[in-house]
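so the lab meeting is tmrw and i was supposed to have these ready like two days ago... anyway. pasting both below. for each one the top line is the aa sequence and the line under it is the structure tokens. i havent really looked at them closely yet so no promises
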Amino acid sequence: MYIIGMMDETDRAIVTMLQADGRIANAEIARRIGMAPSAILERIRKLEERGIVRGYTARVDPGALGYGLLAYVLVRTTDCPGQDQTGPALAALPEVQEVHHIAGDDCFLVKVRARDTESLGRLLRERLGGMTSVRNTRTTIVLDTIKDTTLVPVDAEEPHHV
């Protein structure tokens, strides 16, 4: 889906501000842009309706809640095309933050948060290993995170097609 062409400069400015601070007041956005707060509210509603702004959430430090171990798990399954039962099952696990259906030898890339290597091992052996459709897994444990963001670039440039 390509939407940037459907957004004007004001929409891009609003999205940029909301990404930086989801709790920013409409009045503050209006002040910075030089528009009426009611006009900003209407634009935000339209951005939400069009699915550009999908929601608002607090970013929580996983380590502060005891989930300091981050791992990425490649999962290979026996699912046939069009018979995806594993993806939803993976997504239902509370330690799983992201599930991506991928191209290549493996079927899914899964981002997992765990308390420690012992709890990660249990998750892999008991819950993922207990899924009949999971053929095998390969796990990479993150030692240090250099960049972790949810920000999406919002600019007026057309995407470059190669």
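ok protien two:
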Amino acid sequence: MPTRSQAAVSLVSGGKTSDVIAFSVWTTGDVIDKAENMGFKVKKSEAECVLENIHGDQTASQGINWDVIEWAIREYMEGK
């Protein structure tokens, strides 16, 4: 899964600089905050695993949203 800097390089190096794009950014902080709201204590390394799982399973039809993040947190915590 790319880091912020890797994603930025990829965006800058591909296509025309005038191309219009749309994207969402989700961070480990988002995962940690959501997990805390769900009653779980998640370390940064665990949040990274959750994001990697989400990134690997995402589809253009589903995308990534709060429901997907919540599901991924539950899946991760159950497998822990």
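from a quick look at the 2nd one: Residues 44-57 form the longest helix (14 residues). The mean pLDDT is 88. will dig more after coffe
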